[in-house]
UniProtKB/TrEMBL annotation:
Its biological purpose: Involved in rRNA-processing and ribosome biogenesis.
Species classification: Eukaryota, Viridiplantae, Chlorophyta, core chlorophytes, Trebouxiophyceae
Pfam (any one): Fcf1
Gene3D superfamilies: 5'-nuclease
Organism: Chlorella vulgaris (Green alga)
GO terms, biological process: rRNA processing
Location(s) in or outside the cell: Nucleus, Nucleolus
Protein name stated in the entry: UTP23 sensor motif region domain-containing protein
The keyword Nucleus is assigned to this record: yes
């Protein structure tokens, strides 16, 4: 039971610390009826009880309005009045005018409880008023000791609204060009839902369409090997025309020289034939023993 209470208290304190900025030393405003309840329980010093509950240092305050109300209540609340005299007075601003203790303490919280007060009271009406204020935290006493009230539904709702408001862009951000463009894009009616489809394959795998390599016998492999050699030689032969083509422009200027040499060779052969004929005639004329010459004579 005590462990559960301690867990709830830690959770509530974390809520007030994160959402509303309550920090130790926690400031506690003590009401007269709360002091009277602690005096009746006689469980110890009120400040010690509160510090033990919150797990950190505490500064306890009371107001002039609370003390004035206790004084009016008579001797029955004298013990509570003596208890509150130990703590410093918080300047409530009601010194001259008449103000009830509940109204005085509620006025210290204001609309937002900017000073992060904890109000320790047994007054249920004041209790509700404090819990309706964002950041208003309430301590109360029971037979089991001092307790911290869990945050109200209104306070939780305020926190949610504040978080949603923080997620929205600020005025400065709305004026930026980038967000204006995005806003215009968002304002356009979009009937189609964003689709996240996987890319389907448009056809079979192109690698699977390649012709399969057949396993050939050893002879075929040799032929294939010779064929490969031929193929390897072919590129060399095929390369020759290129060389010839490259050499042709160089040979073209040499053609007149070759024709000239060819003509010279023909002239030389003609001269040789003429000489052979002359020799043949000479031999036939002189001896008359020649084959052709003898026959003709
Ligand atoms: Zn006051």
């Amino acid at each position: 039971m005590r462990r559960k209470k301690h867990k709830n208290t830690r959770r509530t304190l974390r809520f007030y610390r994160i959402q509303f900025g309550h920090r130790p030393p926690y400031k506690v405003l003590l009401d007269g009826n709360f002091a009277h309840a602690l005096e009746a329980m006689k469980k110890g010093e009120s400040k010690d009880l509160i510090e033990r509950l919150l797990g950190d240092t505490v500064k306890c305050y009371t107001t002039h309005c609370v003390q004035r109300e206790l004084k009016k209540l008579g001797k029955e609340y004298a013990g509570a009045r003596q208890l509150l005299k130990r703590y410093p007075l918080h300047k409530c601003g009601h010194d001259e005018e008449h103000c009830s203790a509940a109204d005085c303490l509620a006025a210290q919280l204001g609309d937002k409880n900017e000073e992060h007060f904890f109000v320790a009271t047994q007054d249920k009406v004041l209790h509700r008023r404090c819990m309706s204020v964002p950041g208003g935290a309430v301590l109360f006493a029971s037979i089991n000791g001092v307790h911290l009230e869990t945050p109200s539904a209104l306070q939780k709702q305020r926190v949610k609204l504040e978080e949603q408001r923080n997620l929205l862009p600020s005025q400065a951000e709305l004026h930026s060009v980038a967000l204006q463009v995005d806003g215009a894009a968002q304002q356009q009616p979009t009937t189609e839902r964003p689709s996240f489809r996987r890319k389907k394959a448009k056809g079979p795998n192109p690698l699977s369409l390649l012709p399969k390599k057949r396993k050939e016998p050893a002879a075929a492999v040799r032929e294939a090997g010779s064929g490969k050699q031929q193929q390897q030689q072919q590129p060399a032969q095929a390369a020759q025309p290129k060389l010839q083509q490259q050499q042709q422009p160089a040979k073209q200027p040499q053609q007149p020289q070759q024709q000239q040499a060819h003509k010279d060779g023909e002239q030389q052969q003609g001269v040789k034939r003429k000489r052979q004929r002359r020799r043949g005639k000479a031999s036939g004329g002189d001896g008359g023993g020649g084959g052709d010459g003898g026959g003709s004579d």
